[in-house]
Amino acid sequence: MKIATNKVALINYTLTNDQGEVLDSSEGAEPLAYIHGAGNIIPGLENALDGRQQGDAFKVSIPAEQAYGERDDRLTQIVPKTMFSGVDDIEIGMQFHAQTDAGMQVITVTAVEGDDVTIDGNHPLAGETLHFDVEIVEVREASSEELDHGHVHGTGGHHH
Ligand code: ZN
After folding, report:
1. DSSP letter at 88?
2. Interval between CA 149 and ligand 1 midpoint (Å)
3. What is the average per-residue pLDDT within 56-76?
4. CATH of the structural domain 73-120, one choice from 3.40.50.300, 2.40.50.140, 2.40.10.330, 3.10.20.440
5. Phi, psi angles (nearest 5°) of residue 45
6. Which residue, of 4, 38, 113, 152, is most buried by count of CB atoms within 10 Å of its CB?
C-alpha cells in the first residue's frame, strides 16, 4: 500500500538541524503515526512521504517555509516581569502557553534584564531547515473514527 490521502503511516524518524544536532527522534519510542493529508505533520515532510510505501527509507531536507515558517520579528516583544505573576524565577528558555490573536501559542523567554522580559512567539524551529532521516514502518487504511477525529489511534497516536 502506498501513502496517499487518508492513509495512516507509521514512521521512524530522526530530525537534525543544519549543524547536525539531533532535535527529535522516534528512536527508543513508538513510531510517529499520522493521517496523510490531514495536516498532522509539517507540509514538506508530508509531501516527501507521498507515494512511499512500507520499508522505504530516505533522507529529506525541508526549508523553513515548508516546515515551521520563517521567523517573524514582530512576534518578539518585551514585557514586564509582573506579567508572570506566580512564577518565582523567570529564566531564559522557559516556555509558556499564551492566548494571542493568532490562537494558543507557545512563547519562549529569550532574555531577562531587570524587570524586562523578552518573549518570542515564534515556533522554536521557525527559520530552520529541517533534515529528516525517515523509515516507513507501516501503511494502512485509516478507520472512520480516526478520520472523524483527524488523528491516529493506537500505536504512535492518541490513546483515548
Ligand atoms: Zn481520537
Report:
1. S
2. 5
3. 95
4. 2.40.10.330
5. -75, -40
6. 152
With a CB cutoff of 8 Å and minimum separation 6, the contacts of 82 are: 115
pTM above the 0.85 mark?
Answer: no
Task: For residue range 43-53, list pLDDT tens digits in order.
Answer: 999 999 999 99
Dist CA 128 CA 64 (whole Å) = 5
Give the separation between CA 25 and CA 33, rounded to whole angstroms. 13
Q: In angstroms, what is the span from residue 153 Cα to ligand 1's centroid? A: 6
CATH 3.10.50.40 positions along the chain are 7-68+126-149
Place 97 in a pLDDT band, splitting at 50, 70 and 90: confident
Q: How many A from CA of 104 to the centre of ligand 1?
A: 20
Give every CB contact of residue 45 below 8 A, 6+ residues apart in sequence. 60, 62, 67, 130, 132, 134
| Residue type at 157 in one-letter notation | G
pLDDT bracket for residue 106 (50, 70, 90): confident
